[in-house]
Amino acid sequence: MVTNFRYKWRLFITLTWTNFKLRYYGSFLGYFWSLLKPLGLFGVLYIVFTVYMKQSTPHYKLFLLLGIILWDFFAQGTMAGMNGFIGNYTLIRKVSLPRIILVMAAVTSSFIGFLANMIIFLVFATFDGVEWEFKMLWFIPLVISLYMLVTGIGLILSIIIVKVRDMLTLWEVAIQLGFWLTPIMYPMKLVPAQWRFALFLNPMSGILEYSRYVLIGLGGLTKIGYCYVCAVSATIFLLGMILFIRKEADMVENL
Amino acid sequence: MPPAITVKNLSKTFHVRKVRRGTLRDRFLKLQTNNESKLKKTLDDISFNIEHGEFFGIIGRNGSGKSTLLKILAGIYKPDAGSEILIHGRIAPMLELGVGFNPELTGRENVYLSATILGLTRREIDARYEDIVRFAELENFMGLQVKHYSSGMSVRLAFAVSMQVNAPILLLDEVLAVGDFVFQEKCFAIFERYKKEGKTTILVTHDAGAMERFADKVMLLHETRLEGIGSPHEMIQKYHELG
Questions:
Q1: Is the pLDDT of residue B230 over 60?
Q2: CB nearest to A22's CB, from B98, B104, B122
């Protein structure tokens, strides 16, 4: 039992690291290229919102940057998870291994990128005069929730895409729409009060809103909302795991 | 001592859909066409035992179910309900060659990745790395991405890695099909070693010579059914008679 767990752990670490390397292969700038997309988006949105639209929220820079970094992980991680199974078909058809690790490793390699981005955010935040407080530790459960949410969705998508190959396109559209329906570039308080509840049903809204509250002190946080986010993420995570394990044998044959 | 592998009434049926509905568009457009799936039997009621330390050969024409059988033994496919498989001892998680090499990674990285998949620890791989490279005769190519390898090169490397698995039961699918005669001789040397070490080896090959030389017993599969188990000579003759 112990050796089995050790084997799985070694496999998980090796695959995560391999995925991470593969993503940045063939380019000298490696990791920095991966920053280009979120930072470029950040630059453009920042100019549009502060110069054209005179957005005057304090710390708007940090507000926007944090939102984009969190959302970028959501987008990249779910995409990577979705491809984690079908993308490894050569391996799956030749070796018997716990395939759930393939999906989890794909998500986790995106997560490493996200953690690196968060370090950049913290550097920005320090320069922008954010004060370090104990309250910031409440960010950690939010990160764990985000990781579980992304893994759960990635697992579910990886099951669907075996049967429905155009899930890839559909999910790209969903991410595009989600980018505008989640309070990434606008604060929740700009949303009409009667719609806020609907927006908060999307767990990403809560993760973004509360992360900003605990890290930058913008927006608000309700205990119920915080618990909701953690509970929904954990549920989706468990659901993804259970569905994947139940469907695994079918998926191998349908691949 | 119980046999290393006991297989009783093993059958495997695949569901083959008449109409493939890969995309949502297909699903909508082909709604009216019936979606009955055809059942395709790949293995039909097969029973056999493999003793510990036996070198067990499997022959049969393409499509006779050899590979499916190995994949079931390796745990990749699940057999149909009612089939019984008992395995005593750890079975190596390996199959045909090119154990999922990633073309974008270098030879070295692929060695570490596949050896990890096969169950080795990093320290074990470090210790055996030189041997693996020497066996594959790729000393000068380990930094190269595998996509630039010739098919012979990647097969050699994959085989060299697979040889390192420390499991008492090994499954080998068509390992002799690729590679030149020098490499084949190396494989034969390995087979000799396995026999000496008392490992249970299951080999699928079309190479009658190798079968006669190494196999203790040969199983002949023909059109999903078990045609017979016996001495290599006898079974090869029967195989040729079946045409």
A1: yes
A2: B104
